[in-house]
Amino acid sequence: MPHVIVSPAKSFEEILTQNLPAVFQLDDYRVKFGTPYFDNLYKTALVETLLLEKGFQKSFYCKVSLREDSRIAVHLDPVAKIERSPAVQVAVARLGYLLKSWIPNAEIVQSNLKRYLQLFDLPKEKQSSRYRELIGFYRHTIREVQNRAIGEIYLLQPIDFFEPCDWERIFANQNPVEVEIGPGKGRFLFQEAQRRPEVNFLAIEWAGRYLRILLGRQGKKRFRNVRFAHADARRLFRDWIPENSLQAVHIYFPDPWWKKRHSKRKLVEPKLIGNLERSLREEGLFYFATDVKDYFEMVLQMMADFPNFRKISEKRYSPDDPENPDRSNFETKMRKSGHWVYEARWKKFSPMR
User: Fold this and answer.
1) Measuring CA to CA, which residue among 165, 164, 209 is closest to residue 186?
2) Alpha-carbon span 119 to 294, nearest angstrom
3) Which residues does the annotation mark as catalytic?
4) Residues 321 and 187 in one domain
5) pLDDT tens for residues 44-76?
6) What is the total count of domains within the chain?
7) In what order do the strands lie in the sheet with 107-111?
8) Which structural domain, as residue segments, surrounds residue 54?
9) pTM for this prediction
C-alpha cells in the first residue's frame, strides 16, 4: 500500500485542523483534502479526499495515524483496486508532503512513493511533464504485472510436486524434456524454446526476483513448450524427476559461493551429479559453463568419478574470443569485463551388460 512516514514535532490533530481543507492542482488533475475525522482512541484521522482528473471523479479517505515511535504515517484507508493509480498515489504523497511542510523541522523518513514526492520539489513549470512521465511508468508497470499474471499459468504449483512427475501431463505432449537449473533472466531458455519448439523445457529457479522476471517475459512470449518450477533443484532431482526421463540438463554460471563456510551451498556436488545421471536417459547430455576457473576444474574432477558420463567437448573462451555462446546477460557482462568462460558437455552412457 502507498505510504509516507513523517517524523513530526507535535500531534497531527492540531496540524490538520489548522491547515485543511487544502487543494493541489496540476493541469487537469486536482485533489482536495477536506474534513478530517479524528479517532483519539486509536490516534487516527481519516481525511476526506476528492480526486478529479480528466472529468472523472474519485472520493476516498487518506488515513493519518500517530505511530508508537511518534512518527506520522500517511496511507490509504483500504480501498480496493485504486491504489496503483498514479492519481491516487500522488494524492497520498501530496498529503504526506504537506504534513512535512506544516510541521517545523519534520522530515519524511520512509516512503514507497519517492517518485511522486519528487514531483513537488520541482518548479511549477516542470511538474506537468514529470507527471506525464509517472503515468507512462505506471502503464509500463501495469503491463509487467499483467504479463507476469499470464506467465504464472506456466508455473508449476505446489500440488504438482506432491504427485509423481508426469511430463506428458505437465506439457500436454510426449516431446523430449530438457531442464535448465538457474535460468536467471531466461536468455538461453527463451532462445532455445523458440529455436526448438519440438522440445519441452522446465526452468527451475529458486530466486524469487529472477522468477518474477521469467514469468513476465513468458507472459509476453507465451511459449507453449516452457514451464517453470520455483523450487530447490537438488530436491526435485532427488525426489521428483523420474529416472531416464530427460534429454538434457543445463547449468550455466551457478553461484560460486566464494566463502569457505558457504561451500556446502554450491549447486554442483556429487549428490546432484548422481541424481542427474539417474534422471538422464541413455545418451542424455549434461551442459555446464562458468566464469570461475576453480569451479570448472572442480566439476571436471567430480565428473571423472562418474564412469557413465563421458566428456564429449570442452571449450575455454578468452574475453576477446569472437565466438560467443550468448547464453545469458551475465555471461556477456563477464566477457566484457575480461573474464574467461569455461564450458564442457558430457553424455551419459549406460554400462555394457
Assistant:
1) 209
2) 50
3) 255
4) yes
5) 999 999 999 887 898 999 999 988 888 899 998
6) 2
7) 22-26, 29-39, 44-53, 56-66, 72-76, 3-7, 107-111
8) 3-121
9) 0.67
